[in-house]
Fold each of these.
Amino acid sequence: MMRSVRLLVTIAFMALASSLSSAYDPSPLQDACVAVDDPKASVFVNGKFCKDPKLAMADDFFFSGLHIPGNTSNPVGSAVTPVNVAQIAGLNTLGISLARVDYAPYGLNPPHTHPRATEIPVVLEGTLYVGFVTSNPENRLISKVLNKGDVFVFPIGLIHFQFNVGHTNAVTIAALSSQNPGVITIANAVLGSDPPISIDVLTKAFQLDKDVVNFLQSSFWWDNN
């Protein structure tokens, strides 16, 4: 009798573990998806609605143009060409995307994060100083100089950057672990938000004079994406 009870308990725990392993919250594919009680108020899914598979065609999985250099004639000297679900509809639900990044000499891809993806770029041309910063409380900088053929990893959600330290143009191709990785450029988000963050918040956060914060908030923050 005791042996049978033990067997039943074991089976129950295995069933519970199995149900928990298959029940999870899916990764978000947009910044927010606000719940509504009235189903008629809005309709949205985590990602994109799906086409009937029978209607899928080759162009749904195709993109042309990644061989074309981006325009780096801008204040930061870099340009990002994304290839995510907005460019290739067939990427929906597949959890992957690409980006080409072009750098003028001494061009910078400013400190930013991808809230939904790990990034792994490979250098096709040039020499780049790259790095990311670990989370609090260490905030440790992990950085390296990369040359043609080198690969580096930026873990999901961590602030990272790439800077062309060479005298010639540089190019990378990066893979990202989301169909819509998102990007938050730190300076743009904090100092160029719309409407602006309260100056009292920023002066206290950065320990800066209000005149400096006013100047920074009035500056133009370039979006290289």
Note: Residues 2-22 form the longest helix (21 residues).
Amino acid sequence: MSGLGLQRDSREAAARELRRQRERQRQGRIFNARLRTIGVDKDALDTQVKDRKIQEAAEKARNEELANEMKKNDKIMCMLERQQKNDIRNINKAISEFQKNFQKPETRREFDLSDPEALKKDRPARLSDNDPRCTVSGLQKFMGEDLNYNQRMKFQKEQLREWSLQQQRDWKNALADQKFADDLYDKNRIELDQKIMEQQRREEENRRAVCAATKDFNRAQAAELAERRKLEKDKKMKDDMDEISSLLQGDLLSENPEQAVSSFGRHRVIPDRWKGMNRDQLTAIRYSQQQQVLEKLRLKEEEDRRDAEWDRQSIQAARAQLVLEQRQQRQSRERRRALDTINAELSQEQKAKNIYLREEAYSNFPTGQYYAQFNTTSR
């Protein structure tokens, strides 16, 4: 008996727990303002919103991938351009350093002509008989006084030889530096050209594929257009031959009088085949025109009479409308005065009622315990 009681208690406890869960689920549905006010399938809407967000995320990821690819290409181009500028700057810097170190103004052969310190460095016109500056034009040494001719010539030749060797060495160094700069510039330029050629090759392949597809489509369109034009030309030629044969065998070129008679009756004619009217027909037409003129004058007089009568009636209606509007305005003013009086009385009653409600009826305010007893269950 105790076992049966325990089983019954467990079943009752399970049933109570199930009722509690259903009550909580019901409260979740009823107290959910969004689900209660919308009144539609929220799960379907959530699924649509989720699918929409997934689609937007995929679109955003694709756009970001394209943007990253464009940024990467821009960075590569900027890096190559910056590298080229750095190479040019280094070459110019090397040239400037070379000019500064090996092509100084003091090493020039004609520097003494533009030396700003020439007067400070200048010596007397002739220091001794062996002074190499004593030339014939200087009038410091005359024929027969050149006692150091051999030493002077030897010194000048040695000096000229040293100058020549120094210039050769400077020239070789300059050529070596220039060759190194040119090789570096050519190497960078070749790498840049190879990358540009690779990109152009890919673009050319894509363009060639597009052109091939366009050419095939245009070729098919041209064949179809040629076939259609051929059929139209054959049809037009056949129609032209039929028309020529019909004209040659028709009544127009044969000038048949019966050809002007219309199929709607013999009293009607076809204008492009008609040869003209006889005297009786012309007389009948002129008589008909005179009758039409008289009828038009009669109708014009009747229309003038109708217009005059209409104007008279319009004036009378306007006067009656004016009198009616004045009467309505007067009645409207009287109704407005009566309505103002009624509104004033209602305003006084409303004020008295508000005072009564504020001071007598609504003097006992509810506490929080009063509001807490609502919305505690779903029933």
Note: The first helix runs from residue 2 to 30.
